[in-house]
Amino acid sequence: MVALSLFLYRTCSFYIATGPSICVCCHRTFTSSDSKMSHVSSYAGPTPALQKHHTLLEFRLFCGLQRITIVFLILCSLLNESLSVRFEVSSAELVSVTVGSDVVLPCRLTPEMNAENMEIRWFKSKFKPCVHLYYNGKDDYTDQMPEFTERTELIKENITRGVLLLKIHKVTVQDSGEYHCFAGSSEHHESAIVELLIETETIENGPPEKPSFSQHIIIVSFLLIVAIVLIVSTVLFLKKIYCVKWRKNARQPQPYHISCEGLEICPLKGI
């Protein structure tokens, strides 16, 4: 497309440079043939009015061709831009993790596309040295920050779908901060930012977790069993006391009194 545009531009320039001579030659030829017919002995050259007309016509043709060339160049640039691969890089805003554990920082391309041949660079505040670099289809550790040596891994399981996950092993407090996910090709590049928050043990042991529903059932069942055992024990204890009292009263002798009416011996009541 660019070559065709240059060809049109050079054609316009050549036409401007050689146009008058061509027109003059054409006019001379026509005049010569016409002179033979009209028996004119010599050619006096084009008139000033005819030369002015030719010059104006050539200028209009040149302006028209130049406009066509400019429009063609604009269309070529727009077409080239539309054909180039465009994408966006997105990530989560915040990822939190405890000290000493592993973390995976998310990053993906939109729309989904194969990123195997792209440059994928994870870095913090500076582009170089970086946290992790994937270039020319493999991991490159030459420009890696010393504190991340043998602690980073680019998960390539879904890299053909534009998923660019970075795994950091055994995170420390110094690993907290913003991480940039950069993806670039020969035609386009974009980046996204994700913040990593490192939680200490004090924060981890903050408010206690609420018991789950199953834990509630276990606690209620235990309390119910304890209540039943206490009730049964109390009933048995009271029953035993009553039996002891009753046996004690049954063993004691009852006093008697003599009835005056029938001379019967009856036990005294209320004694």
From TrEMBL:
Residues 100-195 form the Ig-like domain. Keywords: Disulfide bond, Glycoprotein, Immunoglobulin domain, Membrane, Signal, Transmembrane, Transmembrane helix. GO terms for cellular component: external side of plasma membrane. The chain crosses the membrane at residues 217-238. SUPFAM superfamilies: Immunoglobulin. GO terms for molecular function: signaling receptor binding. GO terms for biological process: regulation of cytokine production; regulation of leukocyte cell-cell adhesion; regulation of T cell activation; T cell receptor signaling pathway. It comes from the Eukaryota. It is found in: Membrane. InterPro entries: Ig-like_dom, Ig-like_dom_sf, Ig-like_fold, Ig_sub, Ig_sub2, Ig_V-set, IgSF_BTN/MOG. This is Myelin-oligodendrocyte glycoprotein. The lineage of its organism: Eukaryota, Metazoa, Chordata, Craniata, Vertebrata.
